[in-house]
């Protein structure tokens, strides 16, 4: 029987892991990176999509052809999604009971197809690490995912060439990784997850060696992406107050600001302030602002 890997298909980043001599470890790609941004750039019709860090670098230059945070749309219909959630830099549409699609270069991509490209990249990384084919996987999903979202995640895995052995709740995976399977029976624990797309908390109970999700709740629009959006809105306000340019249709400028907002947020995890600078945001306007942690 072939090897099996564990995959965290995340909103912002994804990773693939294995168990080696009883110890779980995250597999690095050929560049030594263990986290793969869940970003897919579609260069053109019939051209192989670019995935991960390379796609993330292109994102600021070609925002309309680069898909990110697609996990928020997987397994959902147009009527399930608020208008504000569709405010992304790539062309997305979804109406009534119809599926969500992303039209790039004349091809209507589904969230499952985009996610499959991320999973294909993780599959290649695992196969390079092992030096053999890897076609079995366990994939994690948020505990609040409904059947449609779980089935869509499974389909993405199958499109990537995996036999998806199991779909596991993320808080259950976290509890197992922490060693909570060794606690006494009928213990109840809380696991919280602040991710790129959501903030949720689940109550688990260990019964007969199996974790059961007793309850889960959270906010599906309170993740790192939403924190970035608040910083972006704040920066745009400061730019317009300073007399700078702003156009909701200027995707290149919005993408530059989004990238700077995310970088500033990350720096403020360890620093008290971060400088945001845009030299020549337009030919006659440059902008600089010091964003503090407070």
Question: What is the strand and helix layout of this fold?
Answer:
Elements: E1 4-8, E2 13-20, E3 23-26, E4 36-37, E5 39-41, E6 50-51, H1 53-59, E7 66-68, E8 92-93, E9 101-104, E10 107-109, H2 111-130, E11 136-141, H3 147-159, E12 163-169, H4 170-177, E13 188-194, E14 199-207, E15 210-219, H5 224-241, H6 251-267, E16 273-282, E17 285-292
Parallel strand pairs: 1-11, 11-12
Antiparallel strand pairs: 1-2, 2-3, 2-4, 5-6, 5-7, 8-9, 9-10, 13-14, 14-15, 16-17
How many distinct helices?
Answer: 6
- The gyration radius over C-alpha positions equals 20 Å
Give helix and strand order, one letter per element, not per position. EEEEEEHEEEEHEHEHEEEHHEE
**Unreliable parts:** none
Number of strands: 17
- What is the CATH homologous superfamily assignment of the largest domain? ATPase, nucleotide binding domain
Q: What would you call the quaternary organization? A: single chain
How many domains in all? 2
Query: Helix coverage percent of residues?
Result: 25-40%
β content, as a range? 25-35%
Could you tell me the mean pLDDT?
91
CATH-defined architecture of the largest domain: 2-Layer Sandwich
Return the CATH topology of the largest domain: Nucleotidyltransferase, domain 5
Tell me the major beta sheet: 6 strands, mixed
What does the model show?
This protein has 294 residues and is an alpha+beta fold. It has two domains: 181 residues, Nucleotidyltransferase, domain 5; 53 residues, Actin, Chain A, domain 4, CATH 3.90.640.10. It starts with a strand and ends with a strand. The mean pLDDT is 91.
């Amino acid at each position: 029987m072939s090897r099996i890997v564990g995959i965290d298909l995340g909103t912002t980043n994804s990773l693939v892991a294995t168990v080696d001599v009883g110890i779980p470890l995250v597999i690095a790609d050929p560049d030594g990176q263990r986290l793969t941004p869940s970003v897919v750039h579609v260069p053109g019709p019939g051209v192989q999509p670019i995935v991960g860090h390379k796609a993330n670098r292109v994102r600021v230059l070609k925002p309309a052809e680069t898909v990110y945070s697609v996990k928020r749309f997987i397994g959902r219909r147009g009527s399930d999604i608020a208008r504000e959630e569709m405010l992304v830099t790539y062309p997305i549409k979804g109406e009534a009971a119809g599926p969500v699609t992303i039209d790039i270069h004349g091809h209507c991509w589904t969230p499952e197809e985009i996610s499959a490209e991320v999973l294909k990249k993780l599959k290649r990384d695992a196969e390079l690490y092992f030096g053999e084919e890897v076609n079995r996987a366990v994939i994690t999903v948020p505990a609040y995912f409904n059947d449609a979202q779980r089935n869509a995640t499974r389909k993405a895995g199958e499109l990537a060439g995996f036999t998806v052995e199991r779909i596991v709740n993320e808080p259950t995976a976290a509890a197992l990784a922490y060693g909570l399977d060794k606690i006494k029976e009928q213990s109840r624990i809380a696991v919280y997850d602040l991710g790129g797309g959501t903030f949720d908390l689940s109550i688990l109970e260990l019964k007969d060696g199996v974790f059961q999700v007793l309850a889960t709740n959270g906010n599906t629009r309170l993740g790192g992406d939403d924190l970035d959006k608040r910083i972006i809105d704040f920066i745009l306000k400061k730019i317009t107050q300073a007399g700078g340019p702003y156009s909701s249709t200027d995707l290149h400028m919005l993408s530059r600001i989004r990238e700077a907002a995310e970088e500033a947020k990350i720096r403020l995890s360890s620093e008290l302030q971060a400088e945001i600078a845009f030299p020549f945001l337009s030919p006659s306007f440059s902008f600089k602002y010091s964003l503090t942690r407070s």
